[in-house]
Amino acid sequence: MVRVPGGTFLMGGDDPDGRPEDGEGPVREVRLEPFLIDPACVTNAQFATFVKETGYVTEAERIGWSFVFAQFATGGVMDASVPGAPWWAGVEGAAWRSPEGPGSSVGDRQNHPVVHVSWNDATAYAAWAGKRLPTEAEWEMAARGGLSRQRYPWGDELAPKGRQRCNIWQGRFPTAPSKGTMPVKSFQPNGYGLYNVSGNVWEWTADWWSTSFAGSADDPTGPADGTAKVIRGGSYLCHDSYCNRYRVAARTSNTPDSSTGHTGFRCAALR
Ligand SMILES: [Cu+2]
């Protein structure tokens, strides 16, 4: 794990590209104690060790299906759609070991992030590993890598000197072919040594979702309860034309029992 020194940082953003309903702003000063965080998301290989040792069964496996980017589905497509996001398909048999549905496997993706894990699954893994999920504030401070008020974890430019820095959608969405996830240590890490905080997969945080920030500015832990958990970082499906949430201030949420083919997690520790 890498150590993030703590101290104060400016959390949130006021980017005009942000959507008001996402609650990225206002920019506010937040103070954190030092903490440890995984440099990369939990991989399929790591999750397999957890499952082997504990016999854990994920929520997608228990429910029998999960959401897959429709272009990837290998079969088992159900009559379940996401309003406004027709590129998602509910797929029977989709789960962490079979991310595209029946017959798919992670055999050649051992170092890719585990996906189709719910917040509850991620929390169970973290407890097994003697860790926990990062708070949203920890996630953002770590993701910023020591930079202040920059648009991305590496600075303000999406592709400095024309070089791609993160795994987001390339080409026209959603028709261009996508490669999906990449290894968890793709691209250069940020200033704190974290890989792929922007793009690749969304990452679960510990906090309940809210768009107002009334609580303490010291080690904030979000609202006491809620219905959805904050996810951060964006994914391989993000594209400026419809979802620019690979910006480091960007945020959205999902319910704690939901799983998709573009959401994973990394762990934190200490306080
Ligand atoms: Cu996005």
TrEMBL record:
Domain of life (superkingdom): Bacteria
Coiled coil: none
Gene3D superfamilies linked to this entry: paralog of FGE (formylglycine-generating enzyme) (3.90.1580.10)
InterPro entries reported in the protein's UniProt record: CTDL_fold, Sulfatase_Mod_Factor_Kinase, SUMF_dom, SUMF_sf
Compositionally biased tracts (Basic and acidic residues): 16-26
Region listing for Disordered, in residue ranges: 1-26
Domain Sulfatase-modifying factor enzyme-like: 1-268
The protein's name: Formylglycine-generating enzyme family protein
Native species: Nonomuraea marmarensis
